[in-house]
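for the recovery benchmark. tokens below, seq after
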């Protein structure tokens, strides 16, 4: 567990260095009270003054005034407004800022603008020729080689440079070309495919098969289809309220839904036109900078902001007064003086707003803070030790965010351990005592940071008419509600906009502490303030997947049936709660006796947050390894064991379907990975071993009724859809257009989708794989309502009954007569017809339990070096009615790549002495890159539970749940030694081999 370890050295930012600081402004001194705009009497000047230079950019010579320390990316973005070039790390580690210098890829964040000289700069905005996209851009759109799109400009530039030099690159050359471009969404397989296509070559190895079901006919009246591809669908009774859209046929009978569609915003993303929060530039906008504590546990004794306030260009200074983290049940148990107590290194103490980022940085460094440093509890073991320094002096409570996390109120708390949260069925002790077979183990998982390519950020604009914020968020409405509450504003006076965002993975649901700080700075400065966290702040202060230690025991009978399952977990979300992992243990394999006891352990580290399938990758890592151990003890194939264990769960509509689905998925996956060719664990000869492993997953079906939209149909035939739901990169924008297009006989591109703005009807936050479950029934309902008006207008025009009119592709027909789409719309009684619909409730019928899938991993383990490579992953997944297979494939690729990265590489490292995160960057915190991307083979099964008018589900979570466990089981199969700890680094693997004496020498 790396939070208990100390590696070599912390990193520093080239940009910070260029600005004249060797340590990172984020860890300098802190604040004093102020609140006014400041006029300096004798303003100090920072740095040499700006000088004019010429840059040849995209074929035009442009003059800019820059300071010698100005980087090329700053000159491009801030002065020339070419914001397609992104900043992901600011230190040459991510490739988001890739441009061409004389046709050669270069990192604009580590190139000084003044160094460019006469070289020709090409940015993403200069790649297309007029309306004609570069072949790489075109291929990226056609093959969906993007998700959030934040890395896409840099990725496209690297690929375009490759093709200019090597017109027919092979796979190795493509991987090499983009090896410096990180994509946290895991789009690499589609990037490889797109580059092969752009170079006129077939791409193999990253495949998708979709399997439909049914005959394409509408279900009989009063029923909806229930079933799954590979089996059959049957009509189940459903009561559809009057006026609601009737159930669709299975997708075999649909024209748009279920068929691959390119993204509506694909062109914007590949040309750099898509605007992210960091691209927003408002008139008179200021730049914010936080001052954070370098100490993990301290009392703030003095904050002096006088020098910062005197700096020319500083417009507001703010000292934080509200304590971050959980709330003490009895606040009198802690005396902190004038300032909040510091509970982790990276906690915000103060902030400034200034006219340039450089001045804001300088001002932050001028703030003086005196600390009384206190001992800190760092590491799961140390925090649980007797006499460990206390994070909280007494019991606390902390609610979850919109994205999960948090824990129940009023749990017991002893020192730094809170809980347990306990779930019990039956008498576990007795059942375990009687069970003839028992398997047990302790499993440990590390802290994983979200590491979205776009850091958290906000542009806050407090004005007389209200507050407008542009924010990188997963939930526009959740941010609005939070800011309205904090600042005492009516919701109507808070507008939240998120047109595009560069990844969130669960950490971006609320306004966050930094967001509140930015709004406060804007309020004080009376000007818009942009506050983007830097990469260090991103790693330390805005969320992570908690660490865990899990003790799990399974009791079984001789026939393999389960007698009992018992889990005790301890995990740490730092100063927050929400480290539970018990859902998998309680729900995946029912047993007569089951118990989970989950504890949060407080540490002096940054708060955890919801992270893609919260708790599940950790829980399944332990559970699915133990299931494999049980199969080995029983001497039966583990797939056969799972067939026995997947019994019907009582009371769920999908209960039987789940059982059938898992069995089917296991068989499909087993065939594709070559399961039957497996030898005994560790039986391979030589030092390089190969293994195959399996794990299965489940995820719950979450319905967010805060899901509404407006559909407008105009007389000219144009169609608008509006909702505050945003597109996190999953393709929500396109999926919603597909739903509208399906029922109106149009193409998705015919629908103008305006989302990500709280001016429109409320949409669900994007997270928990709940977006499409929530919003698509509302979209279909609003479409249905405007369609009825259109049908009536067409019927009137055609002289037939409304019920006789049919919508077909691009026309409306009845009785052998038809109207083209635009003719029909021209017959509308008013210039536009519109409908606002909220999500209809689920139809009658049993509750859907959830949905799942199976993943198989094939690995190679070098027993001399301990290096594990994942060669191939097969994923077989059901995900409700498939809306857009192209986007679903992208998400599953991304979930698997996240899972591999978690299994093998990612590990937050905290210095036990200081509590500082030592790898708070993207070079020492390793995330999976192009070279580590395996082949991925996906099979998607259409599934119907008949509970809504779309039957859509989400897929972001389930795609990520099983991967680490499947890899762990494959590693065991390869080497015959179980790795019970993540990440499975060479050191971990070698240590495990060493303990068992299974090291093989060549
Ligand atoms: S922003 Fe330049 S490499 Fe990351
Ligand atoms: S698409 Fe690459 S980071 Fe999101």
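predicted aa per position
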């Amino acid at each position: 567990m790396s939070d208990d370890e100390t590696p070599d050295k912390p990193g520093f930012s080239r940009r910070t260095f260029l600005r004249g600081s060797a340590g990172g402004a984020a860890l300098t001194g802190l604040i004093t009270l102020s609140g006014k705009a400041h006029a300096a009497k004798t303003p100090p000047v920072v740095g040499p003054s700006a000088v004019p230079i010429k840059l040849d950019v995209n074929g035009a010579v442009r003059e800019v005034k820059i300071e010698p320390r100005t980087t090329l990316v700053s000159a491009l973005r801030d002065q020339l407004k070419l914001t397609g070039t992104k900043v992901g790390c600011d230190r040459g580690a991510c490739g988001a800022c890739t441009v061409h210098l004389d046709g050669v890829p270069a990192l604009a964040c580590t190139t000084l603008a003044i160094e460019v000289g006469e070289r020709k700069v090409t940015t993403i905005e200069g790649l297309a020729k007029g309306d004609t996209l570069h072949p790489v851009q075109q291929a990226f759109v056609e093959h969906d080689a993007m998700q959030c799109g934040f890395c896409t400009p840099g990725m496209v530039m690297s690929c375009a440079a490759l093709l200019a030099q090597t017109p027919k690159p092979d796979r190795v050359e493509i991987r090499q070309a983009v090896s410096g471009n990180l994509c946290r969404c895991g789009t690499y397989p589609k990037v490889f495919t797109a580059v092969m296509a752009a170079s006129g070559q077939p791409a193999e190895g990253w495949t998708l098969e979709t399997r439909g079901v049914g005959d394409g006919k509408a279900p009989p009246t009063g029923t909806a289809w229930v079933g799954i591809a590979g089996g059959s669908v049957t009509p189940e009774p459903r009561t559809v309220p009057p006026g609601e859209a009737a159930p669709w046929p299975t997708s075999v009978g649909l024209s748009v839904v279920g068929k691959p569609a390119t993204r509506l915003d694909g062109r914007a993303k590949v040309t750099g036109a898509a605007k992210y929060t960091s691209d927003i530039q408002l008139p008179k906008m200021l730049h914010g900078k936080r001052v954070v504590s370098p100490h993990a546990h301290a009392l703030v004794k003095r904050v002096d902001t006088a020098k910062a306030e005197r700096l020319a260009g500083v417009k507001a200074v703010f000292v934080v007064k509200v304590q971050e983290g959980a709330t003490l049940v009895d606040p009198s148990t802690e005396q902190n003086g004038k300032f909040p107590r510091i509970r982790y290194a990276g906690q915000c103490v103060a902030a400034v707003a200034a006219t340039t980022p450089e001045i804001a940085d300088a001002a932050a460094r001028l703030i003086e803070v005196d600390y009384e440093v206190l001992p800190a509890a760092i590491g799961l073991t140390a925090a649980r030790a007797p006499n460990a320094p206390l994070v909280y002096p007494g019991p606390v409570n902390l609610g979850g965010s919109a994205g999960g996390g948090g824990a129940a109120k009023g749990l017991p708390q002893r020192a730094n351990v809170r809980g347990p949260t306990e779930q019990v069925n039956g008498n576990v002790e007795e059942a375990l005592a009687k069970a003839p077979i028992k398997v047990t183990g302790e499993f440990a998982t590390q802290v994983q940071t979200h590491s979205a390519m776009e850091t958290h950020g906000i542009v806050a604009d407090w004005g007389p008419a209200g507050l407008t914020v542009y924010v990188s968020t997963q939930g526009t409405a959740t941010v609005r509600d939070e800011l309205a509450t904090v600042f005492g504003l009516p919701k109507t006076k808070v507008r939240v906009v998120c047109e595009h965002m560069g990844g969130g993975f669960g950490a971006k649901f609320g306004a966050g502490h930094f967001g509140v700080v930015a709004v406060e700075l804007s309020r004080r400065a009376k000007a818009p303030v942009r506050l983007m966290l830097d990469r260090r702040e991103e790693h330390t202060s805005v969320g992570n997947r908690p660490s865990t230690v899990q003790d799990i025991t399974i009791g079984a009978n001789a026939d393999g049936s389960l007698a009992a399952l018992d889990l005790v977990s301890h995990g740490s979300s730092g100063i927050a709660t929400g480290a539970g992992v018990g859902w998998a243990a309680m729900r995946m394999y029912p047993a007569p006796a089951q118990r989970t006891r989950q504890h949060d352990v407080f540490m002096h580290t940054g708060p955890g947050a919801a992270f893609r399938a919260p708790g599940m990758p950790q829980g399944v890592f332990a559970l699915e390894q133990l299931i494999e151990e049980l199969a080995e003890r029983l001497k039966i194939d583990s797939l056969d064991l799972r067939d026995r264990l997947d019994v019907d769960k009582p009371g769920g509509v999908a209960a039987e379907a789940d059982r059938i689905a898992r069995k089917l998925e296991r068989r499909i996956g087993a065939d594709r990975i070559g399961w039957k060719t497996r030898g005994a664990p560790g039986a391979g000869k030589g030092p390089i071993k190969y293994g195959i492993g399996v794990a299965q997953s489940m995820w719950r079906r979450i319905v967010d009724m805060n899901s509404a939209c407006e559909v407008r149909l105009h007389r000219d035939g144009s169609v608008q859809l509006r909702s505050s739901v945003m597109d996190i990169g999953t393709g929500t924008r396109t999926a919603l257009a597909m739903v509208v297009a399906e029922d109106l006989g149009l193409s998705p591109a015919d629908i103008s989708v305006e989302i990500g703005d709280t001016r429109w009807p409320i949409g669900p936050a994007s997270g928990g794989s709940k977006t499409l479950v929530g919003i698509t029934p509302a979209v279909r309902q609003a479409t249905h309502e405007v369609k009825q008006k259109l049908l009536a207008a067409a019927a009137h025009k055609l002289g037939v009954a409304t019920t006789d009119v049919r919508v077909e592709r691009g026309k409306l027909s009845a009785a052998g007569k038809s109207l083209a789409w635009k003719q029909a719309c021209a017959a509308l009684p008013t210039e536009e017809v519109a409908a606002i619909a909220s999500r209809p409730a689920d139809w009658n019928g049993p509750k859907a339990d959830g949905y799942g899938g199976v993943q198989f991993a094939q690995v190679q383990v070098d027993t001399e070096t301990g290096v594990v490579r994942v060669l191939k992953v097969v994923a077989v997944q059901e995900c409700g009615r498939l809306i857009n297979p192209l986007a679903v494939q992208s998400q599953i690729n991304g979930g698997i790549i996240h899972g591999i990265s978690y299994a093998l590489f990612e590990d937050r490292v905290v210095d036990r002495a200081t509590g500082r995160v030592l790898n708070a960057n993207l070079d020492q915190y390793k995330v999976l890159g192009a070279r580590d991307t395996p082949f991925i083979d996906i099979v998607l099964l259409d599934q119907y539970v008949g509970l809504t008018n779309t039957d859509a589900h989400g897929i972001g979570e389930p795609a990520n749940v099983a991967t680490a466990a499947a890899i762990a089981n494959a590693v065991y199969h390869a080497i015959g030694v179980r790795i019970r700890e993540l990440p499975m680094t060479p050191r971990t693997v070698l240590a495990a081999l060493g303990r068992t004496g299974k090291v093989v020498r060549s």
